[in-house]
Amino acid sequence: MKHSIHIRSALPEDSALIAENNKKMAWETEEKSLNIDTAHKGALAGINKSHRCQFYLAEVAGETVGQAMIAYEWSDWRNGEFWWIHSVYVRPEFRNQGIFSALFSHIEALAKSRPEVCGLRLYVENDNLQAQAVYNKLGLEDARYKIFEKEFF
Q1: What is the pLDDT of residues 80-95, one digit of tens each?
Q2: pTM score of the predicted model
Q3: 107: which residues sit within 8 A by CB, 6+ positions away?
Q4: Which of 22, 48, 67, 138 has its CA 20 to 30 A from that of 42?
């Protein structure tokens, strides 16, 4: 079913919904349980400090059905900024209906309109083949990097 999708920047009052979506996404994709209070504080801090990140929400008939966040990485190799797409979530009943494609198109258009942005990146779980297929369809390619991390909490 084709919907009219509206994309907008998140507001502070959206932080609880973003946190709840992030909690659902973390469990669904990694079986990781997020602390909802920490996730809420993190979403609110990101919304209130746009130099850290920017959240975008997809709405259908005034109802939030999806989200994505961009975070920024400076590339000295390119003298430009990569926008990393994070916190992607689409409500299950709205999947495969163009919600993420609309979010991605919005973010891509914004990125292309800013000369300092040299590209878009995202990461995906190795086993999340469905998401990888969507990303490939949108023109994203495997960057041939593995991500290593050390968490401090």
Answers
A1: 999 999 999 999 999 9
A2: 0.91
A3: 56, 68, 70, 83, 85, 120
A4: 138
